[in-house]
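Honest question from a wet-lab person: if I give you the sequences of every part of a complex, can you actually get the arrangement of the whole thing, not just the pieces? Trying it with mine:
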Amino acid sequence: MDNVALNTSEFARYQRHLIMPEFNLDAQLALKKAKVLVIGAGGLGAPLLQYLAAAGVGTIGIVDFDQIEVSNLQRQVLFAQDDIGKFKAEIAQEKIIRQNPHIEVIAIVEKITSENALEIIAPYDIVADGTDNFPTRYLINDACYLLNKINVFGSIFRFEGQLAVFNYPLDNEIRSANYRDLFPEPPAAGTVPNCAEAGVLGVLPGIVGTMQANEVIKVITGIGEPLINKLLVFDALSYSFHNLKFKAQKDNPLSGENPSIKALIDYEEFCGIISGDQFININSITAKDFENLRATRTNFQLVDVREKEEYDLINLGGLFAPLSKLTDYIDQIDRSKKVIVHCQSGVRSRKAIEQLQKEFGFSNLVNLEGGLNGMNEVEIC
Amino acid sequence: MKIKLVAFGIAKDILTHRQQEFVFEGSSIADLKSNLLERFPAFSDLKKLSFAVDEEYQEDTFLLSEDKEVVIIPPVSGG
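Yes, you can. This is the full assembly:
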């Protein structure tokens, strides 16, 4: 290994690694030489960063543009109460440098986009994807393929986790299957809720993120069998593990026989977040303007399209009209005055408005952008 | 054909159970898929449905046998 060596203090720190014959000095030096980019310093990012730092990964980049919110602390164990409001990437950097001063840690407080992804990822060997939305998942997948980087993928939903290693170099310059081989098309926007919408067991990202860190370490050191062309599906409630083999698909538009994707695309559009010709004109209101309307007691009806469990937990006193049973509540939605429709993040309310406009001819509906998440404080009813 | 259907992610919400017996006409994955879409139209929002049998993803033409365990794994996005 060129120019990489351990000093006395590092020998002491990594002693438990070094004494394992399956691991040894070469593996530890490989970790020190490795450059890993962790995208998303949230639930998965927290254990990933802590274990990669502890294991001695020499260079760790952290990409996250979010600030720490109180609702993150139930699972994002890198952060503490007095970190609320600070940038996740910066606090994570500060904490893991304290954990291991022998490593270099770079905080990138930016949203990863089609414009900057290649530049951000290029200096690293391996990406660990711990992001929280479909457009970014496809973006990272495609960027890693275009740059020939290994993508260690982790994803969670309520009590379930998914884990895989994409784009691993095999023989003859072939790369292992990627995210588009598993999920060629994103689900329709709003149909698969994220953690903010669906909830998540706090310990789940801890388990899945730790397994993700393990895959990163296996890939770097060459020990064991990483999840190449395999998707691990984990259920925390039953402790069932499914280890499902999948193949690279010939018709993969990125890596198949006739690739059509040769550069990064617009992933929001690809995932139907704002899709060109399907776009239905929907009026919207910002959280700030909405709060002003409430403060001035302007006359409007508020409709909450979240489900019962969410509504019972916290609500703004709006009409309960869950998206799943929206048609049962049509008669209760006012047609004569302004109606503001909201959910947790603004996705389901947009879907509800689309349906109400298209199927029931409403023309007085306004979507609350960002939903409850976009509001500063929410009164508990 | 009667199979054991194991559903993850949003598929579990749509089917309301993690595991259930599922009886349908035909024997291929494609038959299973069209039966599911007919009985649970919400599956159409997931666009492409993938199925695994014996711990391996299988194509539409794959023929199932009685009481086989079939796993549906839609994508999840949380992190």
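Two things worth pointing out. DSSP finds 14 helices and 13 strands in chain A. The interface with chain B takes residues 40, 42-45, 129-134, 137, 154-157, 160, 162, 182-188, 191-195, 198, 200, 205, 231, 233, 235, 238, 242-247 of chain A (CB under 8 Å).
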